[in-house]
């Protein structure tokens, strides 16, 4: 399995008419690495974050179909797995060479993954898996479900550590450039919440455009990233560089 753990793998592509379309990012060699060894007739499967939000799921499927097109990566088809076809997951995985784990709300997606038994079914997958945001976070053996919605950080019943897919031991936090200064429930998301949760754990915070490539026993961070451990943060990699984790 070739595993991409991304924050956001997409970026704008300016068009000749002055418009903007979105495709896969070229930052830190992402598009080049994604296209390496690509099969032209590749069938892709996208697994949603909210199985009952059909409108959002259909929109996301079309968006990602466009990402492949604008990026020059041919696909024979892209299927979205949600509540409507979850019983077909085994067949869909067998037919696919790439699986995309969508972004969204981490606990909602985690629950859906457990309902469909994704951990067992994807463990023997031989193709490419790409996690995006929540999808990346849920790839871990133990997922750190960083509080996100109002009330989650103060809710004593909110579970911050969940069982994930077990594709990596890395606990990754996406969109660091966007949320590092965010306030949640009257507290600083990172300094007052995440740093406290990092005692006894190691989190890796990625900015959009950075990613971790997991392949052949190696886990390599490419692009700007930070390690959060025991209440402290340290930058461990910068743009256009890489470090093995």
What attributes characterize this protein structure?
single chain, 245 residues, alpha/beta, 8 helices, globular
Describe the model.
With 245 residues, the chain is of the alpha/beta class. Helix content is 26%, strand content 31%. It is built from 8 helices and 18 strands. The strands form 5 sheets. The chain has an 8-stranded mixed β-sheet, sandwiched between helices. Strand 11 and strand 12 form a beta hairpin. The longest helix has 18 residues, at 54-71. The protein is globular. The two termini are 18 Å apart. The model has no long low-confidence stretch (mean pLDDT 96).
Give a short synopsis of this structure.
With 245 residues, this protein is an alpha/beta fold. The chain is 26% helix and 31% strand. The chain is built from eight helices and 18 strands.
Topology, element by element:
Blueprint: E1 2-6, E2 10-14, E3 20-24, H1 30-35, E4 43-47, H2 54-71, E5 77-81, H3 89-95, E6 98-101, H4 106-115, H5 118-122, E7 128-132, H6 134-137, E8 142-144, E9 161-163, E10 171-173, H7 176-179, E11 183-184, E12 187-188, H8 189-197, E13 202-206, E14 211-215, E15 218-222, E16 225-229, E17 232-237, E18 242-244
Parallel strand pairs: 1-7, 4-5, 4-6, 6-7, 10-13
Antiparallel strand pairs: 1-14, 2-3, 8-9, 11-12, 13-16, 14-15, 15-18, 16-17
Shape assignment: globular
Number of strands: 18
Q: How much strand?
A: 25-35%
- What does the oligomeric state look like here? single chain
Please give the share of residues in helix: 25-40%
The value of Rg in angstroms is: 17 Å
Low-confidence stretches: none
Provide the residue-averaged pLDDT.
96
> What is the structural class?
alpha/beta
Side-by-side strand order of the widest sheet = 5-4-6-7-1-14-15-18
């Amino acid at each position: 399995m070739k595993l991409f753990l991304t924050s956001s793998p997409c970026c704008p592509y300016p068009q000749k008419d002055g418009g903007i379309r979105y495709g896969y990012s070229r930052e830190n060699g992402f598009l080049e690495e994604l296209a390496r060894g690509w099969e032209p007739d590749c069938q892709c499967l996208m697994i949603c974050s909210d199985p009952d939000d059909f409108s959002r799921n259909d929109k996301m499927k079309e968006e990602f179909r466009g990402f492949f097109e604008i990026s020059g990566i041919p696909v024979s088809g892209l299927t979205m797995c949600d509540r409507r076809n979850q019983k077909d997951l085994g067949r869909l995985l067998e037919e696919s060479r790439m699986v995309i784990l969508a972004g969204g709300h981490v606990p909602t997606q985690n629950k859906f993954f457990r309902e469909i038994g994704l951990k067992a079914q994807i463990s023997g997958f031989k193709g490419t898996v790409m996690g995006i945001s929540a999808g990346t976070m849920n790839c871990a053996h133990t997922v750190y479900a960083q509080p996100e919605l109002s009330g989650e950080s103060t809710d004593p019943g909110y579970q911050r550590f969940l069982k994930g897919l077990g594709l990596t031991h890395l606990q990754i936090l996406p969109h660091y450039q966007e949320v590092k200064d965010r306030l949640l429930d009257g507290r600083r998301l990172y300094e007052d919440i995440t740093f406290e949760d990092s005692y006894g754990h190691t989190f890796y915070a990625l900015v959009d455009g950075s990613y971790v490539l997991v392949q052949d026993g190696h886990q390599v961070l490419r692009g700007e990233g930070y390690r959060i451990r025991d209440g402290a943060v340290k930058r461990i990699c910068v743009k256009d560089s890489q470090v093995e984790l």
